[in-house]
Amino acid sequence: MLRLTLSKRISTTILVILAVILLSYLIPYLQRNNKVLYVGVDGYSAPFSSANHMGELKGFNIDLAKAIAKSLDAKVEFRILPFNDLEKNLKQKKIDMIIGPFDTHNIVLPKDYVYSVPYFKNNLVLIKRKQDRDSELLRRNSTKGSSYCITDKPHVLTYLRRKLSDKTIKIYENSQAALQAIYLGECNAIIDSYSSANYYITKHKLKHLTIISLENTTHYHLYRIVLNLEDISLKNKINDAVLYMSQTGQLDKISQKWFSQKSTIRENVLKDPAFRK
After folding, report:
1. Which of 3, 24, 45, 189 sits at a 20 to 30 Å CA gap from 108?
2. How far apart are CA 99 and CA 79, in angstroms?
């Protein structure tokens, strides 16, 4: 009887040890697969994030956030917030990060947060009809009487005042209206942001237009993901994910979907001081 009891105790002990070993492997697996990233977005910033009447989100930033979450073995849940409330919700830890068209180029960033490497570079572009000559449109004192259709964006107006002050400007409500104006012959060219121009041309499958990059050291924006100051580890993982997607072409696929162009950010990612800080 004593031997039988002792044998049962040994068997029970072995089962407990095996259970502990099994749980030590199972718990991290379950935790990994239950990890959720809460991402704050503004649902009115097409082509980066926009919500339809059902609340369904679409956009470049939405696809990017999903791809980052997948690389981190995490699920993603989006919180649609007014643009001005995003920072407050991050401070209150209601969200883990903000992904939105925040310009971080040539500005002093608040020290209350950490910032990922840039995931999108938004420079100015010129849109023209294919038959028009580039040199005439971009040179001062040429093609007298030529005009530009633009939207009311401060950085576009600043560029025109500095570079093409002798041209006539016609301001339109949005990029779609400006593109319609060039088809109607109301202007010779459009100057707009890379994202808006390529998005509307892609969305509406517009033809007979050429896009020329106005690359320079001043008039462009760099967009980054914003996190709380203590989330440096998460920031580094996001940086690794963005770099990996840039190297493997995943970022190009997302960019092609929304802008019909490959991503132009890889050089900025590799050289960025935020990488591994």
Report:
1. 45
2. 11
- pTM, two decimals, is 0.79
Q: How confident is the model at residue 18 (pLDDT cuts 50, 70, 90)?
A: low
Q: In this structure, are 152 and 263 located in the same domain? A: no
Tens digit of pLDDT for each residue in 43-72?
888 899 998 888 789 999 999 999 999 999
Distances in whole angstroms, Cα of residue 50 to Cα of each of 58, 78, 82, 155, 175: 6, 12, 12, 23, 16
The DSSP element (H or E) to which 193 belongs, if any, is strand 189-193
In a domain, 21, yes or no: no
Distance CA 105, CA 223 (A): 8
115 phi and psi angles, rounded to 5 deg: -130, 140
**Residue numbers of the domain that contains 54:** 35-121+224-271
Measured distance between the N- and C-terminal CA atoms of the chain, rounded to whole angstroms: 66
E-only strand ranges, 18-112? 36-41, 44-45, 49-51, 57-58, 75-80, 97-103
H-only helix segments in 44-145 = 60-71, 86-91, 134-137
**In this structure, is residue 277 part of a structural domain?**
no
Q: 132 Cβ partners below 8 Å, 6+ apart?
A: 188, 189
- Same-domain pairing of 103 and 237: yes
According to DSSP, the β-strands at 189-193 and 120-129 are antiparallel
User: Are 129 and 187 within one domain?
Assistant: yes
Side-chain-facing half-sphere of 17: CA atoms under 13 Å: 6
Answer yes or no: are the C-beta atoms of 77 and 36 closer than 8 Å.
yes
Q: Cα(109)–Cα(169) distance, rounded to whole angstroms?
A: 33
Residues 98 and 157 in one domain: no
206 part of a folded domain? yes
